[in-house]
Amino acid sequence: MAGDPTEILTKHRYDATRLVQILRDVMAAEGYLSAKTITAIAEGLKLPRARVEGVAGFYSFFALEPRGRFRVLFSDNITDEMAGSLELRQRLLDAFHIGLGEVSRDGLVSVDATSCTGLCDQGPALLVNGHAIGRLTPARIGAISSLIRGGAPVAEWPENLFRIDSHIERKDLLLATPLARGEALAAAIARGAEATLEQVKLSNLRGRGGAGFPTGVKWEACRSTPDDERVVVCNADEGEPGTFKDRVLLADYADLVIEGMTVAAFVIGAKKGFLYVRGEYPFLEASLEATLAERRRIGLLGKDILGTKGFDFDLEIHWGAGAYVCGEESALIESLEGKRGIPRNRPPFPVTNGYLQRPTIVNNVETFAAAAFVAVHGGEWLRSHGTAKSTGTKILSVSGDVARPGVYEYPFGVTVEQVLADCGAENTHSVQVGGPSGTLLARNEFRRRIAFEDVSSAGAFMVFDASRDILEIVDNFARFFAHESCGFCTPCRVGTTLVKQMTNHLVSGKGTRRDVKDLARVCNVMARTSHCGLGTTAGNPVLHALEKFRPAFDQRLASLEVLPSFDLDEALAPAREATGREDSGAHLSSEEEP
Amino acid sequence: MSDTTFSMDGRDIPFEPGQTILQAAVAAGVYVPYLCFNAEFKPHGSCKVCTVKLNGRTATSCTTPARAGDEVESETAEVRELRKNLVQFLFTEGNHFCPSCEASGSCMLQGVAYELEVMSPYYNPLFPDRPVDASHPEVLLDFNRCILCELCIRASSEVDGKNVFALSGRGIKKHLIVNAESGRLADTTLAVTDKAMSVCPVGVILRKRRGFLVPIGRRKYDEHPLSEVAVASTSKPEEGT
Asked: Please, what are the domains in chain B?
């Protein structure tokens, strides 16, 4: 029955920690979260109503107002834009005579933008009622318009629309070495938990999510915290624009990743695990659940794993709902607990006080994959690859102006130049390594290396050739951070919006020297006072571009030192709307006639 | 006694185990500007106005545990500039018109702005659309002035046991909501005697029919600046005078 969430609440055992999952299911069933439904959920879970409304209002895939029966969200990463997404989006908007963010009058369709959906190697991409469609062309947009008009449920649309390719272009240690199911677990059990931990420490494996914290140290801290219930969490909330390697790992190497999680559980003594997958990847659900079921069937998950008395471990998949900040480990844990994804104050750290205050390790998908191999082959095996400070390999998500976008695995220490040559990049102007929060590299830096001691990266590698406009790139990233700031702390909440306004001002040619100075000032305040990594890195694109491509900014400035930031003509827009006038006489400056 | 003190701007600040830098400073009678902190509640760390430099790096003093031997910089030009910008951010974000505000003179945002010599919001105001909630017979909520410190949320939940307030939205759209399907304060269980009624550092939660009961010029921070009042009300009696 519409508005009655009883069935969904029952499915989730009336467990308030599952609130994000419950809201996700209600969204899928009803298209939005009505005030009545929110009240019913709150009553069912015995939570304050405002708390449920607060969670519903936090995640961008949840809607508090009705959206179209077909809710289309265009991925707005810079790589999508470069591949023509804005024109395609306009085409769809025109087909239904609606504006961005609007619902058509018959309630059939709404079209909006969403942050990078992780299909940068096969963009432009969109989500329709949560289902991902890549490789958009005018023909595909035409087909989608017809299907929407036809009204058939998305599940019945032609399958070929939803094909997602893995595009593995270069394999190294992780992607090329075979691993039989249970091999790493058997090795870990044979070696023992403590000795396995020693191998992980010896390997000098560092977190692949970008921060590079030593995995062995994290596991040891968790293992040595007294508690009956420890927790293993795999962070697959791959939200950094330009990154998609975790999508590929979970699609093609799910066994390896889950094996790594189970090894971690063995080492730290955890019985419970979570695989937190970003909401943009629902197409992975069937294969992931099948992998989990198979592993349970053959005794690699569940009670007495591989016949080892007392080695009990199982995990469940938790789906994100459109919030980049949940990639931050403590925000991710909040989300797992059914809350708004707000990064916690630290100390205490998750290794002592994590999920429901239990000792918890949160590691990246790729880290678990590497850990599984370390359990089999030992620490020296990983150390024999990469550099002294960055052992092993790094999987890169290569996209943008390249001939062969896709996933590339390299030993740490590979030069940017080498990657560019391998993926067929020509006339490259700049590379964004590690996504918007990472490092923007100019041509004279292409000899630099991908490694924690040089250019650190969570995996994104977006290539821009000389035809691209650096200001538009910066503007795109500024919009991303403003959209994704959780809003907890003043500097990030306000700063990201100010940066977005200022870059927009500059891109539209209305900027002055003062704007450039203010932009750097705001970015500096954000970098130095923000609560978490989102805010401290949100100014990076601006600061790096100002440092490396200053002339591009100066060329764009209006000639005056100071310009009124107040646009008198724009302020007259409500008057024009009220009188229905759009003629030149209704404008102060007749720029362009519509 | 360096094992129980840290240094702030060259001055030794004693602390007790478990105290944060800000808590210890205020207890020692040293003012550090803040907005979301309230000595009666667990530090929250969202406004960032209490930012200091700790051993050369910036840190949030209300949530960072005090450690013996730490070198803390507070009243330096560099730290003041960061704080000043954060206060300007807050003025930019909301609709703050001091001359017509009921809270003028007893408003911490205004008080901190005076302390940091903020003369203007500097940045282009965002002018958000935040309708007031006048539904309650005794209480007016003027969201225009909300700085999202969450003190009313914490007070209602932790002290009143009611959860009248919460946050919804994200980023710059984050906003205070009340616990009612109608979205109206009148439909919540708020009572004028609630702790949540008395913790707002600005002018959001106002008793009706009490406007200008205390005339401008005789309000909380009119006679003594915020920096003196804040320290006097939270420092230990033996260190007060």
From this structure: 1-127+215-241 (3.10.20.740), 130-210 (3.30.70.20)
Distance CA A437, CA A433 (A): 9
In chain A, the N- to C-terminal Cα span, in Å, equals 48
Decide if B45 and A489 are in contact by the 8 Å CB cutoff. Answer: yes
CATH number for the domain that contains residue A215: 3.40.50.11540
Q: How many CB atoms lie within 10 A of CB B1?
A: 7
Residues A197 and A89 in one domain: no
- Domain check: are A33 and A117 in the same one? no
Write the pLDDT tens digit of every residue in A517-567. Answer: 999 999 999 999 999 999 999 999 999 999 999 999 988 887 666 666 677
In a shared domain, residues A360 and A486: no
Does residue A583 lie within any of the structural domains? no
Among the candidates A106, A128, A162, a domain finishes at A162
Q: Is the distance from CB of A402 to CB of A464 less than 8 angstroms? A: no
| Contact across the interface for A528 and B177, Cβ inside 8 Å | no
Q: Would you call B226 an interface residue with chain A, using a CB distance cutoff of 8 Å? A: no
- Cβ–Cβ under 8 Å, residues B35 and B22: no
Q: How far is A495 from chain B (nearest CA, A)?
A: 7
Q: Which of A162, A197, A229 is the last residue of a domain?
A: A162
Point out the residue among A39, A54, A485 whose CB comes nearest to the CB of B168: A54
Q: In sequence order, what E strands does chain B have?
A: 5-8, 11-14, 51-54, 57-60, 71-73, 139-141, 165-168, 175-178, 205-207
For residue A510, what is the domain's CATH number? Answer: 1.20.1440.230
Q: What is the pLDDT of residue A584?
A: 84
Q: Which of A493, A500, A534 to mutate to test the interface with B (most CBs of B within 10 A)?
A: A493
**pLDDT tens for residues A236-251?**
999 999 999 999 999 9
pTM listed for this prediction? 0.94
Report yes or no: A454 and A448 within 8 Å, Cβ to Cβ.
yes
Same structural domain, A42 and A74: no
Position B1 confidence tier, pLDDT thresholds 50, 70, 90 = very low
pLDDT tens-digit series, residues A160-195: 999 999 999 999 999 999 999 999 999 999 999 999
The strand pairing partners of B65, in sequence order, are B20
Q: Which of A54, A493, A528 sits opposite B166 (nearest CB)?
A: A54
Banded model confidence at residue A511, pLDDT cuts 50, 70, 90: confident
Domain contains A587: no
Is the same domain home to A88 and A156? Answer: yes
Q: Is B94 an 8 Å CB contact of chain A?
A: no
Average of per-residue pLDDT values in chain A: 95
The parent domain of residue A149 ranges over: 70-162
CA nearest A64: which of B29, B170, B126? B170
Q: Cβ contact (<8 Å) for B178 and A50?
A: yes
Please judge whether B165 and A50 are an interchain contact, meaning their C-beta atoms are less than 8 angstroms apart: yes
pLDDT of B236 > 60? The answer is no
Q: A487–B45: do the CB atoms touch at under 8 Å?
A: no
Inside any domain, residue A423: no
Closest chain A residue to the Cα of B18, Cα to Cα: A347
Contact between chains at A525 and B166 (C-beta distance less than 8 A): no
Mean pLDDT of A366-373: 98
By Cβ distance, the residue of A36, A487, A521 closest to B171 is A487
CB A494 to CB B172 under 8 A? yes
Instruction: State whether residue A507 is helix, strand or coil.
Output: helix
- Give how far Cα B237 sits from Cα of A285, B25, B29, B62, B220, Å: 61, 14, 10, 21, 20
A192 with A268, same domain? yes
